[in-house]
Amino acid sequence: MTTESDPSYPDHWEADVVLRDGGTARIRPITTDDAGRLVSFYEQVSDESKYYRFFAPYPRLSDRDVHRFTHHDYVDRVGLAATIGGEFIATVRYDRIGADGRSATGPSDEAEVAFLVQDAHQGRGVASALLEHIGAVARERGIRRFAAEVLPANSKMIKVFTDAGYQQKRSFEDGSVHLTLDLEPTAESLAVQRAREQRAEARSVQRLLSPGSVAVIGVSRSLAGVGAAALRNLRDSGFHGHLYAVNEAVTRDLLDGVRAYPTLGAVGAPVDLAVIAVPADRVPDAVAACGEHGVQGLVVLSAGYGESGIEGMARQRELVRQVRSYGMRLIGPNAFGVINTAPEVELNASLAPAPAPARGRVGLFTQSGAIGIALLSGLLRRGEGLSSFVSAGNRADVSGNDILQYWYDDEATDVALLYLETLGNPRKFTRLARRTAAVKPVVVARGGRHTPAGHVVPGTRLPEATVSELLRQAGVIRVDTVTELVDVGLLLASQPVPAGPRVAILGNSESLGVLTYDACLTEGLRPLPPLDLTTAASPEDFRTAVCAALASPDTDAVVVTAIPWVSEHALADDLAEALRAAAAAHPGKPVAVVHVELGALAEALSAATAPTAAAEPADALPATRPTAATALAALASGPDAGSGAGADAVPGAGPHAGAGAGAVGGSGGGPGAVRASGTGAPPFSVPVAAGAPFRPEPGSDAAGSAAVPAPGVARIPSYPAAERAVKAVAEAVRYGQWRRGIAEVGQVPEFEDIDESGAAGQLSRLLAGVGEEQVVTLDDPAARELLARYGIRVLSTLPAPSPDAAVRAAQVLGYPVALKTTAPHLRHRADLGGVRLDLTTEAELRRSYEELTHALGKPQELLPVVQSMVPRGVDTVIRSVIDPAAGAVLSFGLSGVASELLGDTAHRLVPATDKDAASLIRSIRTAPLLFGWRGSDPVDTPALEELLLRLSRLVDDHPEVVGVALEPVVVATEGLSVLSATVRVAHPPARGDLGPRTLPSY
Question: What percent of the chain has pLDDT over 90?
């Protein structure tokens, strides 16, 4: 198939999709070159499926059939195919029909649609995905309804149509079921589509994290390098599935205790996950071997891709294409790996050095191996375990969006932590994050404001502050640093979400209490006066005070401050026990501890998840038992300790970049079936010899109990600085407020006076003859006409190219009038003197005209206009822009240099609800000016909210509108006036987040 030879070929219809079982398929238009593929596909379809398709026995396709099904005009006749490995697994086609049911051309808006799915792929959701895509194609070609004839016995196909969520009619005629589907998207069809998307993408990640068998391709015979390190970590983690080593030059049956083969094909058993650690130029052969073997997913550790330049980026795109052509998903390339601590899996297919992470309730996703090491180290050191970990490297396929889909209904994950360097699709990310944050916290640290090498994503024109604000509106807890990511994650993983901002502060240091009090005020919390227990306070004094604070109806959270005693180690465990006892007695409120030089207290507080915690009652914890922090401190105390220390423990593996490059023995390999022992090392055990971690006996108290908290014992997070503890509490408070706020769902109002069809017709005429990439700024009459169709009235202006023309314009409009310049460099710049207001006489108008032209330039340069005066009020600005990545964004702020200079603008995603509009105008810092600041009259905010909602509807209904600026909008005590409007239009993108399901193609 070559698109270059056929200019009409719609290549934007090509898409990769995730199917119900987590595999992938490619959907593309059928071309004349597909005759052989079509015949081969049809031969593999059962006679029953053929009968359901043609309503009669149809054993083979005639030459005429093949010609008909492969020749399309892509307007009135369209065929799409779902392919895996280049071969058809399903087809769908539509033929435009007229009122008589016969073939027709436009303007007929109905088409007959028919599907055929290979029996081996039925039940995978292929037909549902094809229906979404053929429906989008039909709408693009002006078709609004599908008609289908289905035999009553073909219940699977009937279900595909009835479950799609479209408005439909159903009847029984001449022995068949006649279905008519209205292709206009509905709330139900969109909900169905997104639910299917979530299930499919979550399943695709689950297959990567819970494989039944793993092969490591590229394990060197010397057992050095990245491949050997990954194999060793898999083996030592106690992986419960089958483990294989692959090396094309293998000369013995075992490599590092794992059975080895020269090729993947030599393994006489299925392989679910392959870890590839060969040089980049040998990866394609390894991928092909995996595809032919039926591997479900890949983790590519190899470097030399997008991070290495233009050639590497081309290699990366080809890698994604090849992987998806076999129906697989990909983590990487240049990945650090994946970890799943579930007791039935215990997978460590990563380069993370021992000890392996404990089992916990935190999910972690990173785009950087070095940051991944730092985060794993920080969580381990402070006693927190993980449910799953994914470090995606260049994120060419599996991204943070996919992981969020998985975490959304993953019962093992309570808190989602993400370190992101880029947001490939912010609009989808905010949608997924909002849904996930409604059930569990989502904490995000952004690693940079620019796209790093290797991450090719749609660029965003939005400022970083705007992106952050949109994330917070979606319920995302946005932090600035990796340290804050860990701090906030620890609190949310171990403590309840605060019910409000009232914070009790108590401790044995007045100064530390004051610092904490100041930090609370800085973060917008409402602290109570600090309670000083004095330096003589005992653990029992702390317990009593914490119990009282937690029991008080006037507090929502407690911050405990502690400084060292003379005999710190003797009292640290007692204090930890006292604090845990108090927290356990009042479990509904969070407790955080600020300690100064009290390392033993931090260890004791994190000890609730130590290896022996589950084996002993809460009141009998030994003072000297090994804790998580103690174990990590022992590990990190060597010469390589540091934020990236663990990487150098793996031969050939630097801090992520360069992983897999030149440090492997070969690309081939044949796994031999060796069952992992399942007796993995406890997460906090200290190795007794290099490469030989302590392994408890199966069934012993230590085995499998590393991350199980003691009954009734809560782990309390501790922080070495007041600001860090308070920041974590404040983020939890804001998250709780967001959670409570979403209980009241906003509505997108319907306005009866909106002329949607008229606006669509006008835009179609305006864009006739405009190039696909061209953006057109409408002239004032066209902009006013378009806005008026949505109930937005823009005050008229009359040109004033001379003083006499200005006087005539004033006579038409009636005094008083305003005289202002409209030249681009002076537009909306009243501070430059380009506006004269309240001109009540001809003399004043002429004098003002002369002053303007004398000070600023000739009339032909200034383009002056005359406009009627409107009631005084507050000048505001309303804008909407279409960002290539985030989609449509609605913005609001006050007009003027001060607001622009301070960036005092608020934003909401389109479509905005009535709740969004109300919060939008109240979220700017200068909002008090709208509500009667310093005795002024409040303005008509309901009218302002209605204007925002009308503009949101216009932009949402018509993607051709790519930019609108209403400036200024004068909001008076009653009503408002839009004095000026700029509207930009362009041909809409073919697909978007509201289109059919598709994987991003970077």
Answer: 61
